[in-house]
Specification:
The complex is a heterodimer of chains A (480) and B (343). Chain A is built from 23 helices and 13 strands. Chain A is of the alpha/beta class and 480 residues long. Chain A folds into 2 domains: 192 residues, 3-Layer(aba) Sandwich (Rossmann fold); 270 residues, 3-Layer(aba) Sandwich (Rossmann fold). In chain A, strands 3-4-2-5-6-1-7 form a 7-stranded parallel beta sheet, sandwiched between helices. In chain A, strands 8-13-12-9-11-10 form a 6-stranded parallel beta sheet. In chain A, helix 16 packs antiparallel against helix 20 and helix 17 packs antiparallel against helix 20. With 343 residues, chain B is mainly α. In chain B, 62% of the residues lie in helices and 2% in strands. The two termini of chain B are 36 Å apart. Classes of the chains: A alpha/beta (480), B mainly alpha (343). At the A-B interface, helix 5, helix 14 and helix 23 of A face helix 7, helix 9, helix 10 and helix 11 of B.
Chain lengths: 480, 343
């Protein structure tokens, strides 16, 4: 059966999205593959479809439990029953049963932590797998923003002689991260696919302002006059709160969005935004969101993104419907200093290394630092891993190096902001690609006629009013 | 509402405890001292209402109370209410929380209900795929089997849930705005819920106050469902197993079992490899919540009577003062007597 027919039979789609077919064909030729595809561009299909021709189980290693659950549910919605998540949520009995019949599943999702367990390794060694998928592969790299040391611990496991092909998937990766992925997973001359990073329908604005207050008044003016839906990225939760309050008071339907909110609240905001009940979301740029809204018209950065990859991912949320959209980056002199402060705020410091050793000496579990809130979970994970591998001095040097790398990433972003040439050309060049064609209203430096792109805000945005509880209950349960 | 609740707790603990005691009650700390305070000062309804309450938020309120001259905090952390504070506390409305019985399980109830409603709402709109409002696999499994048990595919479950929810809400002695609050934390197809911030803005109060109003409404609702189980067959299932039957902490429960098997206190200390004081805490807990537990083996009737007389005489339940007055008795004995209550 041809790939297109399989696609239609199992998933109901009539055509592949860019990159999917190339990646799948390489997998079926038993090649290792690194595929960089942005979120929402059908990354998962790259392993879902091959599973139906391979006739052997596909093992998917995924570091985020919630993501794993999403993917399992997605497959079940397509009618797939032979799918299992082998993770720490399983009870001992459940786990034993799953392991016993593991070869009967078509899709086996698991976490790097699980792969460290001997019984899991033994079982997998006896099985013939069709494909190993490493999802969110940037977590492998210590340069990645969500480094998982467990991947390094299972590195050996990937280097086995007669292993099946490996597919490494990620949404964002710089060439440095890609190199780490290649080495850690011992990939053999992998086929590399990278999506076309240029988004010609997104116009790249950059506006230089005096200071914070200037930015605030510019933003207020701009948001009152132009139409959303849009996302405003800011550097802290507090600022997100301040802006959203100010916009709300000006009668603009806005909500703040950051990691300080509970999971339900975050889902409510996303849903309201998608349903058109909100025009603006003010989000912290440290916080990614799995939002899939097609008609976002504007993405504005109030403060500097941590690196170019983040910037691309954030502006990439605009104009998914193919219509033109506007990305504006506000800059005032010295913004890079704040950005550097923010990006290293999450890193462990030499002080943390000493604390760790001190606790060990006192025979206290170093995890106590985590409980005290002395550092973040990611930071602890990094610290914990390296201290067990290297000497104190080496770890300190390594952390120092990590901080310098993050500074360098900010400086690279700064270069994009300060360039006198075409911003688009620079961005695309950073990812090792060549710009095919400059669109109309390309970027600030090529010249943007803002009036041609931005639409005037319609005043009659209706505020959503509450209805009595009886009506709400009926709407929910009867759809009326 | 948060301030009113604090005033009520402070009034009950007036002069007897530090301000932190109130914080531990609201967070539901499972320590012997807090559990004992619950019984001594009748604080059951407030126990564990806000397990995530930050110390900063609590301290902010205390500072405000001091500025308003509602109470004074001494260096030791002990406090006393000023006249204005006592007056205001007396003017606060009666709340109907049931923290001791539900211990945060109202959120389990609501997570189940949310996912049921969300599923039914999407089903009637014929939308098969949505991202579940509860990510907790235990809740998801529970709801999946609930829906299957009630043959949701036939499409009649919506009507039944609607009828029960309407009935229970109509029977609740709470305001329509409180009911509305609960309904807007539910979501469905093209009907997103409202965030706490949005609800608080609409109600012109703090986020914490909205959350407390929500919890109180759920406690009242759960009590109604438990009391008239036959009237609410579906909600009864959703609420099943959420009332804490054993009022003891798990560890105290373990100690109680060993004691029942005939082991002496010293043996239990040895067997459980715990401190003597911890095991003593367990016995105090038993004295407070197990009507059949006798303190006889530890304290004579005459001694107990002396404690009660002293407590009345000095107008206090403070152990330190009672211990000075009755210095031949141990702190443990005093705590047992106070916990058991006057007979």
């Amino acid at each position: 059966m041809k790939l297109e027919q399989l696609l239609h039979k199992h998933f109901g789609y009539s055509a592949f999205r860019p990159g999917q077919k190339e990646v799948i064909e390489a997998i079926l030729q038993e090649k290792d593959v690194i595929a960089l595809l942005p979120t929402g561009m059908g990354k998962s299909l790259c392993y879902q479809l091959p599973a139906y021709t391979l006739q052997k189980p596909v093992l998917i290693v995924s570091p985020l439990l919630s993501l794993m659950q999403d993917q399992v549910e997605e497959l079940k919605r397509f009618g797939e029953k032979r799918v299992v998540a082998l993770n720490s949520f399983l009870s001992i009995t459940e786990k034993r049963n799953v392991l016993l019949y593991l070869e009967q599943y078509r899709f086996i999702f698991t976490s790097p932590e699980m792969l460290l367990q001997q019984q899991v390794q033994e079982k997998l060694a006896q099985m013939k797998l069709g494909l190993i998928v490493v999802d969110e592969a940037h977590c492998i790299s210590q340069w990645g923003f969500d480094f998982r040391p467990d991947y390094l611990r299972i590195g050996e496991w990937f280097s086995k002689e007669n292993r099946p092909p490996i597919l490494a998937l990620s949404a964002t990766a710089t060439s440095k991260v890609v190199q780490d992925i290649r080495e850690t997973l011992s990939l053999k001359e992998p086929f590399e696919f990278m999506y076309n990073v240029d988004r010609p329908t997104i116009h790249l604005g950059r506006i230089v302002l005096e200071d914070k207050a200037d930015k605030a008044s510019w933003l207020m003016q701009h948001i009152k006059e132009t139409a959303g839906p849009g996302i405003l990225y800011v550097s802290s939760r507090k600022r997100a709160q301040q802006y959203s309050t100010a916009f709300l008071q000006a009668g603009i339907r806005t909500a703040a969005y950051h990691a300080g909110y509970g999971a339900e609240d975050r889902q409510f905001i996303q849903q309201q935004f998608i349903d058109g009940e909100l025009d603006w979301i003010v989000a912290t740029n440290a916080f990614g969101m799995g939002i899939n809204k097609q008609d976002i018209r504007q993405v504005i950065h109030e403060s500097m993104p941590a690196n170019i990859a983040n910037y691309m991912q954030e502006i990439g949320r605009a104009g998914r419907d193919g219509q033109s959209a506007l990305a504006i980056l506000l800059y005032s002199e010295g913004d890079e200093e704040l950005a550097k402060f923010v990006v290293t705020g999450d890193l462990p410091t030499p002080h943390h290394v000493d604390r760790y050793q001190e606790l060990l000496f006192q025979q206290i579990q170093p995890t106590q630092m985590l409980k005290n809130g002395e550092l973040s979970e990611t930071a602890f994970r990094v610290l914990d891993y390296w201290i067990q591998q290297e000497s104190t001095e080496q770890v300190k040097a390594r952390l120092n190096h990590l901080a310098l790398e993050k500074y360098r990433a900010v400086d690279e972003m700064l270069k994009i902001i300060q360039t006198k040439g075409c911003i688009r050309e620079h961005l695309v060049g950073y990812f090792g690609q060549k710009l095919q064609k400059k669109p109309e209203n390309c970027c600030e430096n090529c010249g943007i006629h803002y009036d041609e792109i931005k639409k005037t805000r319609l005043k009659e945005d209706k505020k959503i009013e509450m209805v009595p509880w009886e009506s709400r209950l009926q709407q929910l349960l009867l759809g009326i | 509402m948060f301030h009113q609740i604090l005033l009520q707790i402070f009034q009950k603990l007036n002069k007897e405890r530090t301000i932190s005691a109130a914080y531990h009650v609201l967070r539901g700390k499972r320590s012997g001292q807090t559990i004992q305070d619950i019984g001594l000062f009748q604080l059951h309804q407030y126990f564990g209402l806000l397990p995530k309450l930050s110390r900063a938020t609590f301290d902010e309120a205390v500072t405000l109370f001091m500025q308003y001259s509602w109470l004074k905090v001494q260096e030791s952390g002990h406090f006393y209410m000023e006249k204005l504070g006592v007056q205001l506390a007396q003017q606060t409305p009666t709340f109907f929380f049931d923290g001791w019985q539900y211990r945060g399980n109202e959120h389990v109830f609501f997570a189940r209900l949310s996912l049921i409603v969300q599923s039914l709402s999407h089903q009637i709109a014929e939308v098969r795929s949505f991202s579940p409002i509860s990510r907790d696999p235990v809740t998801q499994t529970w709801v999946r089997s609930f829906l299957q048990d009630h043959h949701y595919q036939k499409g009649h479950l919506q009507q039944q849930v609607l009828a029960e929810c309407t009935r229970v809400l109509n029977n609740l002695p709470v305001s329509d705005t409180s009911k509305q609050l609960v309904l807007y934390r539910l979501s469905g197809y093209r009907l997103p819920g409202w965030t706490w911030q949005q609800l608080a803005d609409e109600r012109k109060e703090s986020v914490l106050d909205s959350q407390l109003a929500f919890i109180e409404t759920l406690h009242i609702l759960l009590n109604e469902v438990h009391q008239k189980g036959d009237d609410y067959p579906l909600l009864g299932q959703v609420a099943a197993g959420l009332k804490v039957k054993l009022l003891l902490t798990d560890s105290a429960q373990h100690t109680a079992q060993l004691y029942e098997q005939g082991y002496a206190m010293e043996q239990i200390v040895h067997m459980r490899k715990l401190k003597q004081s911890t095991i003593e805490d367990h016995f105090v807990e038993l004295a407070m919540y197990e009507p059949n537990f006798s303190i006889g083996p530890f304290v004579s009737y005459e001694e107990a009577q002396k404690v009660w007389q002293a407590s009345k005489h000095y107008q206090t339940k403070k152990l330190k003062i009672l211990h000075e007055a009755l210095n031949d008795m141990s702190y443990f004995q005093l705590r047992l007597v106070l916990a058991k209550g006057e007979v």
